Amino acid sequence: MLAGVGFAVSGCNEVVTGYWWSGNVLMAQANDTVGCLQATVTDGIQAESQISRVDGNTFKVVWRFKAEHDVDSARIVMDFTHRSEADYWMIPAVSYDGNEWGRGLEPKGAQQEGAWRTYSYRRTPIPGALYSEGKSFAVATWSEVPAVCDDDFSCGMMPEAEATTHRLIWPEEELPVSYCNRDKYIDGWQRVASMRKGEERRFAMYVCVTELKTAHTAMQTFLKVCWDCMGHASTEVLPADEVWRRGIGFCKESLWAEDGIYRGFSIGLLPQGEDGWHQRTGGRYESGWCGQNISIACSMLWDYLKNGDKESLDKGMTTLDCWADNCRLPNGLFVTHFDAIQEKRACNLDACNLGTTALNYFQAYELARECGYDRPQYRELAFGILDFALNDQQADGCYARGWTFEGECIYREGTVGCFLLPAMLEAYKVSGDKKYLESGIRAYNHYVRELHENGYTTAGALDTWCIDKESAITLLRSSLRLYGLTGEKAYLDDAIQTSYYLSTWLWHYDGVYPAGDAFTEYGFHTFGGTSVSVQHHHLDYYAALWIPEWMELAELTGDRQWQEKARAVWNNCCQLISDGTLKVNNRLRPLGSQNEAYFESSWGFGYGFSKEQATTVPPVVRTDRINDWLVAWPSAFRLETLRKLEELDKSSMLK
Fold it and tell me: The CATH number of 2-229 is which of 2.40.300, 2.70.98, 1.10.10, 2.40.50?
């Protein structure tokens, strides 16, 4: 039986400017009540807490629970109740104001059929992090990484009419259902744990409070504290030259394809037989997004200029020419999936691929000239894409999310159209024509307004329709470019705000996994990884693409956290790049290959944990955390990032 307990509270009771505690009640300077602590435990467990000040906004609450007699099924609930209705709330990487935006079937709202949702801390990038904005204050709570798996815990947010409860729960549970795969659920589960007489359990809860600020920028306070408080794990990382060698090797040796009229790179490898690999047979050739043909081709030209490899030059120019010669449409659009050309069928032309293609072809033109080739058609096709998008742009600045071959808009909602924006600004740089800058600024104002108002960006991941992280890179890149063009501080402020939003997807810690688990076996570190979206609860290496922007932001602001985060991302994304002898899941991986998805929680492709697995004590050993989809884009992103850092003379910042 659970019951609230009157627990002893000590520390931080003195009245000071800012925030202080009166017993278990957190007070503000004008004697306003922010909220209060409460513990609810199984009968026979005694609770007490010690509060210490971290800084002017943040407190650390150390909870201690002691069994007065044997307790066969122990449960501990630790609450901080923010005494205000939440106008906005967030569980980072899990739920942004209830995930009401989008067409996916990810968890919507804080409740299901009247029962509060709870999530394992493993789904959150800061252990058990919860954030709410009330009428006067913004409050964040989080915990520490469990030292052992037996201390795994869960969290939940309970927004109600007059109060918003931030909750931590031990032992681990996911209720009333557990989100196990994209748009799929299993029955909810609770681990069962006992406490023997005299046994103690210790848990920490950080409480950070600040005055409410506009555009959800109050979250910056707790995110900065979290980064400074969490121990920054170190991961051995390959030298940049070796990362480059392996990436180029993977593209040339494993991804190169000659298929009818097609000459270019495959989207990736899938398992074949007991220990082999084959190039994927459907959705094979893509200009951007997962396939990244144009980016890889640019890296091939760079490799020739850097290392004199004629094979790289030939493959790079052949790829660029193949796409340019076959995929341009009369209206200026570009066929982004070569399979459609080969199969004589239509496909959607999405802004993510189109924007990436245009930006990379601007770069390809310059690189080809350095290699001795004049290819004006590369620029022409980039301008064609952007002229079409500019003429189709709405009065409010919105670009489309995608079009048909004939140029009919398929849909506009979400932030995906913003992928055209960096290329539009590049078109202004290349041409000097202000129509591109004016179009870009109108689009920027539209998309950044959504971030300011909603506190999130949406649907950059083309296989989802939900709140995500990928779409935000377009705002980060564009805000820094516009700041460079105009010197207006508002753009730099937006870059900071976007970077904090991206930080809500960034793993601030190394998860602890049991012996025999795949992460333990292969030494995979979660620190520096990023979760994909609220619809896809797994880690990937996408953040490798915005490392240069965080390096630039660190220099512009003098805030070292952005360089530290960039290094963390780089170290994370350089894990498990095969040297040609690496075996994962009993399958030898080709040189330079690396898989896409890492399942840090009970979520997974195909299946997550079953209810029976989830409730296993000790925690279940999971051998499928590392998938076998050796996709092109992680290598492409690392190569592109190394090129950009070398151009900016910032390569040393990764060391």
Answer: 2.70.98
